[in-house]
Amino acid sequence: MQTAGQRTGLSVRHRRLIRRIGVTAISVSITLLGLVALTFFIGRMLPLDPVIKIVGENATQEAYDKVYRELGLDQPLLHQFISYLSKAVTLDLGNALTSGRPVMEDIGRVFPATVELATVAMILGTGLGVPLGVISAMYANSWIDHTVRTLCLIGYSAPNFWLGLMGLMVFYAGLGWVSGPGRIGFVYEYSVETRTGFLLIDTAMTGNWEAFRNAVSHIVLPASILAFGGMTYISRMTRSFMAAQLSQEYVITARVKGLSWRRTVWRHAFRNIAVQVLTVVALSYAFLLEGAVLTETVFAWPGFGRYLTTALLAGDMNAVVGCTLIVGIIFVTINLICDVLYRVLDPRTR
């Protein structure tokens, strides 16, 4: 049977949890509101006329005025923003001027391609970045460490679009090891039965292995380019975390007791940085989802980044604001997940 003190303590913990959830919800709402407001008002101030994009430059003044009123552009700017927000709450982000379809429908159509590309890139980047960071810390100031750090410097310095162009020139045009731009060859494009929107999964589920191999040959190069950038960040952060752990007393104690260097690092030190590495990987994944714009443009990848680029060039602010809102939601969601995982997996944060 609980004492009065225990019941009081439980109540206090519940109140703290509710307060924390409330503060987080308010913070997220303000962040997303500010993001949408900033994008919306900047879009309205740009010297772009969405009406011209719809009716064309040779339209009559009457047709122009009619579309102008239908878009609500005759209303005060604040009224336009409030109207947009009221619809955005119900996930109505308006119609894209470039396609004529609802923005959410367009995003739902192109987003799986970006998720697939970013996921493959993240698997490659994490699989290489974490071991390289640990090994670099294990052999600090050796030729191995200098090689890894130089590789990371190149990854930070070289822009993705340049790496993409060089990759196409060498591995596609020169050596012929991979397929060219696009997500899948034209021959297989209409033979794939769409179930999930993820091409690798759909082709594997239906047993269309020729299309699967073709899709793999298309995704390997752009995913590797994206993975290179993610790998450098993950590697550098992992090295920093591991170097801090290797200077701790428990590492020296383990070595004095006769534990091998490799076993000390991977079994003891790495366990203490696993949560931090997980946070870095999760945030890197969010950056890959948002930062694939140039890579998708170079490789003609029909994903979220290319859709956003096309909308920007066409002055389609409905699509631009909608994409910005989706990117903001992704970042906020992944940050919240990282925060929760950090508290669950690391008792010290509690």
Could you please describe the fold and organization of this structure?
The protein is mainly alpha-helical and 350 residues long. It folds into 2 domains: 4-88; 109-349, MetI-like (MetI-like fold, Orthogonal Bundle), CATH 1.10.3720.10. 77% of the residues lie in helices and 0% in strands. The chain has 15 helices and no strands. Helix 7 crosses helix 10 (209-246) and helix 10 packs across helix 12. The radius of gyration is 25 Å and the shape is globular. The model has no long low-confidence stretch (mean pLDDT 80). Residues 111-342 form the ABC transmembrane type-1 domain. It holds the Pfam family BPD_transp_1.
